[in-house]
Amino acid sequence: MPPEPAAGGAAHHHRALELLYASAPINRQFDSRLEIVAPGHARIRFGVAERFFHAAGAAHGTIYFKMLDDAAFYAANSLVSDRFLLTTAFNLHFTAPVRTGTLVAEGRWVSGKRRVFIAEAHLTDEDGEEVGRGTGTFLRSHIPLSSLPGYRNGG
């Protein structure tokens, strides 16, 4: 079971994390949207275009990593309302090539309740077929979420 949501309302924290994701400069480069579905569960929809292809005509691995890391990260950070988490390790498995279309990354908290969190993510294509998966370890940082310009207490 995930840790209990922080006092003050999980829904406000989750909306603030969605705003934080949208405000990150890197995310202006992509057609993507984060949704915190529930405590410990995040979903990202991501549009893949040819500009993300490697020389052999499929999405470069950085796209897989970005989506899987972000989904797992936000699943874990949805359980921490005071501090920004940091990715300390991430294992990635490619299971199929990605071309254009919309991908969905589903991240879920696995374990950890205080300092270190583990979360996993699965990446599926428009047909619901898995194209990648990963597991990450995330560490509670000294950075208060409230100090980050994109994080607003629920908007």
Write the layout of secondary structure elements.
Elements: H1 10-23, E1 31-38, E2 41-48, H2 61-77, E3 83-94, E4 101-111, E5 116-124, E6 130-144
Antiparallel strand pairs: 1-2, 2-4, 3-6, 4-5, 5-6
Question: Can you give me a brief rundown of this structure?
Answer:
This protein is α+β, with helices and mostly antiparallel strands and 155 residues long. It is built from 2 helices and 6 strands, in the order H-E-E-H-E-E-E-E. The longest helix has 17 residues, at 61-77.
Keywords:
Thiol Ester Dehydrase, Chain A, single chain, 155 residues, alpha+beta, 20% helix
Structure description:
This protein has 155 residues and is of the alpha+beta class. 20% of the residues lie in helices and 41% in strands. It has a single domain (10-147), classed as Hotdog Thioesterase (Thiol Ester Dehydrase, Chain A, Roll). The chain starts with 9 loop residues before the first helix and ends in an 11-residue tail after the last strand. The mean pLDDT is 93.
Catalogue the unreliable spans.
Answer: none
Separate helix tally:
2
Structural class, from secondary structure content?
alpha+beta
Overall number of domains: 1
Strand content range: 35-45%
CATH fold-type name: Thiol Ester Dehydrase, Chain A
Helix content: 10-25%
CATH superfamily: Hotdog Thioesterase
